[in-house]
Prior knowledge:
The complex is a heterodimer of chains A (395) and B (142).
Chain A: E1 9-19, H1 26-40, E2 50-54, H2 70-74, E3 80-84, H3 91-103, E4 109-117, H4 118-123, H5 148-163, H6 167-181, H7 196-201, E5 204-207, E6 209-210, E7 219-228, H8 229-232, E8 240-249, H9 251-257, H10 266-277, E9 286-288, H11 294-303, H12 312-316, H13 334-337, H14 344-354, E10 368-377, E11 383-393
Parallel strand pairs in A: 2-3, 2-4, 9-10
Antiparallel strand pairs in A: 1-7, 1-8, 4-7, 5-6, 8-11, 10-11
Helix pairs in contact in A: 6-11
Chain B: H1 15-22, E1 27-31, E2 37-38, E3 56-60, E4 64-73, E5 85-92, E6 97-102, E7 115-124, E8 127-134
Antiparallel strand pairs in B: 1-2, 1-3, 4-5, 4-7, 5-6, 7-8
Amino acid sequence: MEKFLKKKFAIVGVGMVSGRFPEYGMRTLQAEAARLAIEDAGLQPSQVNGAVDLQLAPGSGSPPLETDAFPRILGLPCRMFFSIGRGGQAGILGIVAASKFLEMGMADYVVLSYGATDWSRTHNKQRTNVRSVEKIGHWGKPFGDVAAVSHHTFFASRHMHEYGTRPEAFGEIAVAQRAWAQLNPNAHFHGRPLSLDDYMNAPMAIDPYRLQDMCIVNDGGVAFVLTTAERARDLKRKPVYVLGAGTGEAMERLWWEKANYTQLAVETAKACAFREADITLKDVDFAGLYDCFTGEVLFQVEDYGWCKKGEGGDFLRGGAIGPGGKIPINTSGGLLAAYYFGELTHIHEAIMQLRGEAGARQVADAKIGIASGHGGEILAPGMCSTHGTLVLGRD
Amino acid sequence: MAIPRPKPNLNESIIPFWHAVNDKKFKLMRCTKCSAWYFPAAYCRFHANEPFYGNMRWEEASGRGKVFAYNIHHRSLHPAFEGPYVYALIELEEGPMFGTNIVGCAPEDVKIGMPVEVVFSQVEEDLILPQFRPSGIVCEPA
C-alpha cells in the first residue's frame, strides 16, 4: 500500500500555556497557544492560512459550545478552518485531515490548537457548572455514574480479575510518571514526588483506584504548526516529521464480544501508523501513552507489545517506564502528573523530545516517538472505544 | 434539603425503558425476527432491518445476570450521593451489559461472577431505579 504521510509533513512550531487561568476563556487560551506556536515557528500570522480547532470530549462529554473562533482572535487569513476530535483524541485526527489540505494546496501553514478551561469550569463558582448537567441520552448518572472514573474503573477491575493484576501495577505507573514530573518544571506535580509506599498507603477513592490513579485538571492550551516537509526546511526550527498515524475502534468488541475490557483498540491504529512510518516497536525511543487513568497505561504497555497481555504488572515492576527504565513513557509526567490536554499533552512532549528541548528529562538520542489518543462517548456502561496512534520523528 | 439525584435525561430511544421501570418491569430491546436482545436501543446486527427499529420491540427480560465488573465509590463525586456505594457492570442473562448499583449486601461482599437480580428501588419520591442485588436475598424495599 502506498504511504501517504511518511515524512511529507512536519511540525515546525509549538506552543503551550498550562495552569489555572480563571480570567481567560477557552478561545483566548487557544489563541494564545496558537500565537506562541506561530512565533516559535518564526512565521508571521499573515502566513498562516489554515487552522484547525482541536476539540476533546473528556469525561463529562462535549465541552460547551463557544461561539468564537481562535483564527478570528489572531487575525489569521484562513482559507480552511474546521473543528475536529473525538473523546480524548483530536490532534491525530487534525494532523491527518490538515495533511490532506496541505497536499491539495489549500493552505501553506496550518495551526492546530486546543484550549481547556477544565479547572475553571469545575472550580470557579462564578461560572456555569456545566458538569452538573446530565447529557442527553443514556448514561448512568442516577446510579452515581457521575464522572469518568465511575466507569473507567470497570476496566481496571476486569484486568485484576482476568490476570490477577495487583494494585502495585497501577502504583508503578503513578510513581514512574510522578518521577518524570520531577524533571519537568512545568508539570503540576513538579516538586511533589510519590513513592510506591505513598501510593499503597493512600486511601481508596473509587476502588480499585486511588486519587493517584487519576489524571489532573487544569486550564490552558496547546498548539502546533503543520506544513509540508519542503517548506519546513526553510524555517528556523528542526522539523518534527509526521511519520505515521492510525486509528482503532472497539465498539464491536466492547458491546458484543465483551472482550475489550482489558485492552484498548490499539491493533489497527498501531498497524496503520507503524506501516506508514515503516517501523517496528524496537524503533520507538519513547512513548506518550494516553493516561486518563493508570489502567490505560497498563493496557497499552501490553497492547503495543512491550510485554504480553496480562503481564503488564510484572513488566512495570521497579520503574520500567520511569527515568532510567526499560522504555521512557509519559516523560512529561503525562496527564497524571503534568497537564491534562488529552493526547495533545503527549504530542507536545514528543515534539520537545525530538527537538532535543526536553531539558532534564531529555531521552538521549531520541529519533522516533509515539503519542496515543483514547476516548469516546459516554454511554453507560462506558464506551471509550477510540484509539489513535501518531508516530513522529526527526532527521 | 437533600440535593436530588440527577434524573435520567431521556431521549426518544430510551423513554420506553424508563416507562417500564416505573411499572417495575425490566425491559430490553428484542428482535422480532431472530429473538436477539439489545440494550440500549440498536438495530439487529444479524440481518437487514426495517426502518427505524421496525423489527425491534421493548420486551420484559429476566432481570437476572452476573457481576461483570464493579467499583466501590468511597468518595462522593456528587452531592446527591453518599459513599460507599457500588457501581457495577452486569452481564445480563440475555447478553447485554447494564450499569447499575449493587444493593442488599455490603460493598466488600460484591464479587465478579456473583449472580444478581433486579430490584426496583424507590430512591426518591419521583425516581425508581432498576438496581441489582445478590440473587435469592430478600431485603426490604428501599
